[in-house]
Specification:
By secondary structure, the protein is an all-alpha fold. It is built from 14 helices and no strands. It has one domain. About 3% of the residues have low confidence.
């Protein structure tokens, strides 16, 4: 009976991971959709504001249920949250919204570029945490860059600062992926003192403080047009706020307390699996051959540092054990 309960628990957790990755996969399509009526700054700031309001009571309840006294925020903690908020959250959320704007990087292309997240995380871990960077990892990162370029190869000919929007859109999305990688890696420094939900909420605070004056200065029309947005735009904004920026994160962090981080992280491959057909159905987007080939290059770079490198490490360990015997 315990084994059955364990199996059911794992089945439930993987079902939850399936659900939250589906929500995240909707993000490129939704931000493309809502930007028909607003700019990228407001399309980022407003739904995250709603998500923050939803998260405040959840974090408050978590702190009330904690037996240990709450940690006092130090200057070092404040510095870390500022870095997480600006170089993590702002970079990840704003750049993907900007890069997935209509006529920039298509949502399907963005979903393919999500495949670069593991290799970008690996590179960030090398620079921030001092983890080992092997020649294979450098090669994988170069392969991922080539894949990004191929996804937007249509715009590479005659590229100039005033043209090639798909190329620049892909670059913005790739920088957004690196923002997510920075957030995931740098969080390790902060999670020793704060819970995952607290880290997420406090980094949202920084994002809102940073973006509010910028949004107000450059896109004040977004606030003025609130009563005039279409039902489609409101549905997109609320879905982003409730399901992408709040519920999906809560689900993922909750499952992470029961599953190994590596196992949970592998579920992010579902982002592309879901994202491409969602973009095809909702936005009527079509995949081109260069986009498919570029996506395969990015996937190949990721497989090199996940499946192949892990296989090589296990093989080396087994050879060492045999030599000792």
């Amino acid at each position: 009976m315990p084994s059955i309960n364990t199996s059911m628990g794992k089945f439930r957790d993987w079902g939850l991971l399936l659900l939250c990755n589906f929500f995240w996969a909707c993000q490129p399509t939704l931000v493309n959709l809502v930007q028909n009526e607003m700019g990228p700054l407001f399309a980022t700031f407003f739904p995250i504001s709603i998500a923050t309001l939803l998260l405040i009571p959840i974090v408050a309840r978590e702190r009330r249920g904690c037996s240990a006294p709450p940690s006092r925020m130090t200057r070092a903690d404040l510095r870390d949250f500022i870095l997480l908020g600006i170089f993590g959250q702002v970079a990840a959320q704003l750049l993907i919204t900007w890069g997935t704007a209509p006529k920039w990087s298509p949502a399907a292309n963005t979903s393919l570029l999500f495949l670069a997240l593991p290799i970008c995380t690996c590179v960030m871990a090398y620079f921030i945490l001092g983890e080992r960077m092997t020649p294979l990892r450098f090669f994988s990162f170069a392969l991922a860059i080539a894949g990004v370029a191929m996804c937007s190869s249509k715009d590479l000919k005659g590229l100039s600062l005033s043209s090639g929007k798909m190329f620049w859109g892909s670059i913005l999305v790739f920088l957004s992926v690196n923002g997510s990688a920075f957030y995931n890696v740098y969080c390790k420094k902060v999670l020793e003192r704060y819970s995952p939900l607290q880290v997420m909420l406090y980094s949202y605070y920084v994002l809102l403080i940073f973006m509010f004056p910028i949004t107000l200065a450059f896109e004040p029309k977004g606030f003025l047009d609130l009563p005039h947005y279409s039902l489609k735009a409101w549905c997109g904004l609320l879905f982003l706020a409730v399901f992408v920026y709040a519920l999906a994160m809560v689900i993922f962090l909750n499952v992470l307390t029961r599953l190994d981080a590596t196992q949970a992280g592998l579920s992010n491959y579902l982002l592309t699996f879901f994202g491409v057909p969602i973009a095809a159905v909702v936005l009527k987007e079509r995949l081109t051959l260069p986009m498919i080939l570029g996506g395969l290059l990015v996937l190949g770079s990721t497989l090199l540092i996940t499946v192949y490198e892990e296989y090589q490490n296990k093989r080396s360990e087994s050879l060492k054990e045999e030599s000792h015997e």
